[in-house]
Known about the structure:
Elements: H1 3-7, H2 10-19, H3 29-32, H4 35-44, H5 54-57, H6 60-69, H7 85-94, H8 104-107, H9 110-119, H10 129-137, H11 139-145, H12 147-153, H13 157-161
Helix pairs in contact: 2-4, 4-6, 6-7, 7-9
Amino acid sequence: MTGAEQRDDREFVMAAVRKSGLSIRHASGRLRADDEVALQAVRENGRALEHVADALRADRKVVLAAIGKWAIALQFASAELRDDREIVLKAVRKWGVAIKYASLRLRSDRELVLAAIRRNTAALKYASEELRVDLKNDQKCGRQLGTGAVALMHGSQQADNH
């Protein structure tokens, strides 16, 4: 079987993505658009979402499987799914900084941003400017965020030097 034939052979590609999800990048366009192949690939390695067909980057099931494996896969999801609260919440609960890839609307969502910050205080820098200001002015919230986030909110140069 030639390389081109292998890239378009469903059984061959399924076997490859079971071992390494990133193998999908070598599959034919037809198989990168196959929902079962894509789902298998992202379940093995969430980063495989980068290499699936655009239509599958908008597929809720495929994207949820990808971020379940690797939260930062959110960056490869469709714009519509990066604006989906449930999907973004799952990503930020796994890795707070994934909020960086959420829509601006969701980076302005106080509850979502606080969930991200609880996971990783560095997520604060990706919150909307309005929300960062709001959190800075909310002393009660500032105490809950911890010293790293408070330093980020105050623009502390010391935080950058550590």
